[in-house]
Amino acid sequence: MKAKQIIACAMLVTLMFAVGAAQAQTAKIGVVNFGRLLDESPQAQASQRALQDEFAPRQRELRGREEQLKSMEERLTQSEGFMSEDERQNLEREARDLQREMSRGKSEFGEDLSLRRNEELGKLQRMLIEEVQRVAQAQGYDIVLSEAVGVVYASTGVDLTDQVLAALQARGATNSGSN
Q: What contacts 47, CB < 8 A, 6 or more positions away?
């Protein structure tokens, strides 16, 4: 995936130089490290804290159940000769039920946390891209690249779409006339 992005960036830079030496010399290119933005931005840190706060009660509940199960297992081990067979079977059944419940709870917790983390990451990435685009436009950048996203911003001055489209249309008209 990174190789494709590097190739795309290299092709973009090559196309810029193909536009003309004068335009290429005046093009202002910037690079953004999205990994660092995701690690160090206050918005990312606030998002991480919000997720921790949201999932802390469930995590504490799971830890409590783990302690409860550990206590049951210790009682089973320590009271081997002192507990009636019925009491022992009941405690073993309770421990198995709690183990199943905990296993389900951990699985649901992991899925829910992953889902929420992905939701928050998506919001954060959209916000970061918008901010990079605002900064790029305000500071007069023609192109902003990122190792994670590829082209984050491109001004209309370096957009070759109209020229390429015109060339394709001219070629299409020529090709369709020769058939």
A: 120, 123, 124
Give the up-direction half-sphere exposure of residue 149: CA atoms within 13 A in the CB hemisphere.
23
**CB contact at 8 A, 66 and 102:** yes
Q: What is the pTM of this model?
A: 0.67
Note down pLDDT in tens along the chain; length 179 residues.
Answer: 565 655 555 555 555 555 544 454 578 999 999 889 999 999 999 999 999 999 999 999 999 999 999 998 888 888 777 888 888 889 889 999 999 999 999 999 999 999 999 999 999 999 999 999 999 999 999 999 988 888 888 888 887 888 888 888 988 877 665 55
Contacts with 91 (C-beta within 8 Å, 6 or more apart), sequence order: 72, 75, 76, 83
For residues 42 and 123, the answer to whether their CB atoms sit within 8 Å is no
- Residue where the block lists tokens 């009636």: 84
